[in-house]
Amino acid sequence: MSESTIESILQEKRLFQPAAEFSQKAQIKSLEDYQQLYDRAKADPEKFWAELAEQELHWFQKWDQVLDWQPPFAKWFVGGKINISYNCLDRHLTTWRRNKAALIWEGEPGDSRTLTYAQLHREVCQFANALKHLGVEKGDRVGIYMPMIPEAAIAMLACARIGAAHTVVFGGFSAEALRDRLVDGQVKVVVTADGGWRKDAIVPLKTQVDKALADGAAPSVENVLVVRRTGQEIPMQLGGRDHWWHELQPQMSADCPAEPMDSEDLLFVLYTSGSTGKPKGVVHTTGGYNLYTHMTTKWIFDLQDTDVYWCTADVGWITGHSYIVYGPLSNGATTLMYEGAPRASNPGCFWDVIQKHGVNVFYTAPTAIRAFIKMGEDIPKARDLSSLRLLGTVGEPINPEAWMWYHRVIGGERCPIVDTWWQTETGGIMITPLPGAIATKPGSATLPFPGILADVVNLEGESVGTNQGGYLAVRHPWPGMMRTVYGDPDRFRKTYWEHIPPKDGKYIYFAGDGARRDEDGYYWVMGRVDDVINVAGHRLGTMEIESALVSHPAVAEAAVVGKPDELKGQDIVAFVTLEGGHTGSDALKAELKQHVGQEIGAIARPGDIRFADALPKTRSGKIMRRLLRDLASGNAVSGDTSTLEDRNVLEALRDEG
Ligand code: WTA
């Protein structure tokens, strides 16, 4: 932890009440209804969740115990048997939803596909059988490194169906980052594509997989399944490791009953950046995650049966897992998936998709909204966006002006906005408006979801006062919470449960974000309090980027900090000292940026590199990032510098900047 006090300067007073027509049709219709739900859940969280689990999900066998809490390890619906693929597919087939669109997909070049629930079920069953054919068994791990195409969702659901855990690796990650995750997860089969379309170019996924697996670097991987998407020439090891999806999958039987899974069986591992060390594998299990993503989707996105719902995230992130695939399909909704991104040749592509498919509920990130603002409002205004009735954001705090623009230009001043705060670790949305019930304030995620005992605390675990800054925390387990760090329970305990030391056996979940609560009890999330940088809504650990830099032969030492950026929220600034015999130059800067892109992925490439003779350190040798942050942002160095070992270092860095 770097700062012990957190300052909050935002003072936003505007208040937007939900429109009466919206509230009347909403799942949760008034503040009183929300308050009642919240109070009931708080009084007896187990009873609250158990009732919903019974009403909303299919269980092959009911649980014996709702919650087994041996802090910090929680088990939900112990003894219950369930399958999330069954809840997302099979149970809809005996209703009118059988022939409803489950997935509407739009490719970047303009091709599109719609799969009904019956069709999606069939594809999933056939692919599940293909995995079995390749020797995948219950308990194995499958890596998914895919573009945004239906096969990504099909592969996830197929894994869940047979009880294999998936590890989705974002397609923008490099071969090196992919390899680390495949090795850590001991992945048996990798599902990928020849390539994917992004900004009019092909992302060469299969080539990256080949690199990741080269020289037996990920020995657990036995087979690679490849979807033909872009059609460019790629090397295939046929008759051996590599298989074409379109050759194998259609031969398979469409009969593949969903495996009754233990509620606490592993559903997936998703890697995320922390403040120290390598990315951690966040573990989510079956029953609790199914319930939590189901309920949050239902009440927050307020899905009506005729809605087309679109979340613009990539399935490689938790938002894609919970709110493109599992939450919407468990609710029998129509979920839209889009392969592309706004690009020079079509900056209005998002609005085209909304117009073409009559999207009603739209969920995106503040960084995207800021980019749209820059492109100008004429672009969305030239499209018909009248189908929209609800908007959402996720990934970072949204600045009130971006919120107002979203409200006015995209929402036509009629759509509520749900600003949803949550994390990979929480599995689903934690703090958010319920759109028919809770009045919104631009920039505030408003109130906790029913059943979430959120708080803002100091490091002693005491609630801080109104409008005082503190640490965002949760005081009671919830069904969607992560269960552990894959293979490292100790790291789980230390990272999330010991920053605030437990008292009298009471453990508090430490989210790593600063926040305050205003006079109405509304939460204002202020961003990370640790060394995690949030670039365009993507979490990056400083440690990972520093390790990547130091792996370059010219670099002796590196310290990475975030600086405010108009578009991306934060940009990366790297302070670098060089090995003897190397001198700083623009060419070396470019090379180092390229190197980080190679090691981790383009999202981690520093915007700025500054060479230094030495880095500012404490007497005990800790790099003083606080000072570097000030320098990087062009601010005067604030706060105490008395612990600095050598003040000259600071002067030199200042001159350099
Ligand atoms: C940040 C993404 C403010 C926060 C779902 C959190 C937010 C991290 C918001 C998790 C929001 C996410 N307002 N900050 N509405 N949503 N964050 O794991 O710092 O990729 O800790 O999960 O994003 O990022 P992650």
UniProtKB/TrEMBL annotation:
ATP binds at G395, E396, P397, D419, T420, W421, W422, Q423, T424, D513, R528, R539. This is Acetyl-coenzyme A synthetase. The gene is acs. The modification N6-acetyllysine is found at K622. Its cofactor is Mg(2+). GO terms for molecular function: acetate-CoA ligase activity. Its EC number is 6.2.1.1. The lineage of its organism: Bacteria, Bacillati, Cyanobacteriota, Cyanophyceae, Leptolyngbyales. It comes from Trichocoleus desertorum GB2-A4. Mg(2+) binds at V550, H552, V555. Acetylated. Deacetylation by the SIR2-homolog deacetylase activates the enzyme. Residues 96-484 form the AMP-dependent synthetase/ligase domain. Belongs to the ATP-dependent AMP-binding enzyme family.
